[in-house]
Amino acid sequence: MIISLNWLKKFTDINMPVDELVKLIGARLVEIENVVDLGEKYKDTLIVKIIEAKKLEGSDHLNVTKIDDGGVSQNIERDENGHIQVVCGASNVRAEQLVVWLPPNSIVPETYGATEPFVLGARKLLGVTSNGMIASAKELDLYDEHEGILEVEDDVKPGKPFAELYELNDYLLNIENKSLTHRPDCFGIVGFAREVAAILGKPFHTPEWLANLSPAFDKIESGGVDINVNIDDPELSSRYMAIVMSNADGNKKTPTKIQTYLARVGVRPISAVVDVTNYLMMLTGQPLHAFDYDKLIAVGGGKADIHVRAGRENEELGLLDGRKIQISTEDIVISAGDIAVALAGAMGGANTEIDENTKNIVIESATFNLYNLRATQMRHGVFSEAITRFTKGQPADLTAPVLFKASCLMNEWAGAKIVSAIADTYPGKTETPTIHVPQIQINETLGSSLDMPQITDTLINAEFDIDVKAPYTVLVKAPYWRADIHILEDIIEEVGRLNGFDNITPTLPGRDFTAVEPNGFDVFRSLVRKILVRAGANEVLSYSFVHGNVLEKAGQDINNSYKLVNSISPDLQYYRQTLTPSLLDLVHPNIKQGFDSFALFEINKAHSKKDGLNDEKVPIESEMISLVLANKSPYDSAAYYQAKRMLDYLCESLGVKIKYEPIEKGLDNAIVKPYEYRRSAKVIDELSGDLIGVAGEYKNSVIKGFKLPEYSAGFEMNSAILFNTFKKLKPYYKPLSRYPSSERDVCFQVGENVMYSQIINSAISALEPDKYDAVVTPIDIYQPTEGGTKNITIRIKLTASDHTLTSDEVNGYVKSISNLIVKNTQATII
Amino acid sequence: MQNIEDTGKQLITQIAGSDSPRDILKAPELKQLYGVIKTLPPEEKGGYGKRINELKITLESAVDTREVELESATVEPLDITAPWDVNSGPQSLLPTENGSQHPLTSELENVSDIFTRMGFEVIESRQIDDDYHMFGTLNFPDNHPARDGYDTFRTEEGFIAPAHTSTMQNRILLDGKKKLESGGQIGVVAIGRCFRNEDLDATHEHTFHQCEGVFVSETATLGQMLGTLRSFFEAYYGQSLNIRTQPSYFPFVEPGLEFAIEKPAALGGNSKDKEWLEMLGCGMIHPNVLSVAGIDPKKYRGFAWGGGIERLVMLKYGIEDIRHFESGKLQFLREFV
Question: Do residue B156 and residue A704 have CB atoms under 8 angstroms apart?
Answer without folding.
Answer: no
